[in-house]
Task: structure prediction
Amino acid sequence: MTQSHRQSRFPVIIPAILLGALALCAVRPLRAQDESSVLQGFQSPGKQFRPMVRWWWPGDDVTDQEIDREIGILDASGFGGAEIQPFVTFNTHELPKAEAARVESYATPEFFHHVRAAADAAKAHGMWIDYTFGSGWPFGGGMAITPELSAIELRFTDNTVTGPESAPVQLKIPQWQPGLTAAMMMQAGQKPQWPAGWQERFEARSKIISVVAMRAASTQPAGEGKPELLDRSSAVVLTDRMRPDGTLDWQVPAGQWHIFVFRQFPTRQSVIGAAGSGPQLVLDHLDKAAFEAHAHRVGDPLASALGPDMGTSLRAIFCDSL
Result:
């Protein structure tokens, strides 16, 4: 029996969602417009038609006075609104202690007070404010997102065997590896420091999802640019035949077979550019409990601070990098 192994990273893939504005236009009879009126409409459009900007905040290191001043600048420059994005692009340990504390005080009562000040200033100018529903991207962070609520992925190994063979097949089991962003952060010396016991909780959430064997449709090896075809009708689910030591109790029939082992892992991905205290784990976007925990942290205090202005002067929330 010949046997080879190949491990691939197969993350849970979510299609990117492009968010656009939907304009509702009343149908009116066409009427002649002179050139000057059309030009005037472009030179001084109504505020509801103006573009907006992303407004980067260094965590909560902002003041009501500066917020009001910058809203005035945006209005005078022809913008209709702004989207608040709390963010950190630098090592706060290099800042003076008081300044670092302000940057890291995201999602505190003081922070939501400042969001309210921005919404009030925008309202006074006939503008609007949007709010990024978290700090950095993707969403998560704080103590709200634990290993049990963090993002997960699916990895697999492709074990190639040739039958017939009755001896147990030793399978290679997928192992966790840091993803691209995690690897880049680790190379830059930004290794996450998880709370005590979290590493064990990550491991407890890792599990084999399925073991599936499929026969190669042809004995001809795949060439460059030519994928190997598998016989879908030959698929056999062997999950309950794999032993704890990774051996497969299965008599391999004649032919070349690919035995795929699928395993789930927490990604251990950190939120990039996150302001705020506590671990910065990315949440599981497909877990309702995870989103509710995040929304309780970054949304409920916002609703309390804004009151009836939620949905008006604070127009919308934005999800960055689903």
DSSP finds eight helices and eleven strands in the chain. The chain has a mean pLDDT of 86. Residues 45 and 78 are 9 Å apart (CA to CA).
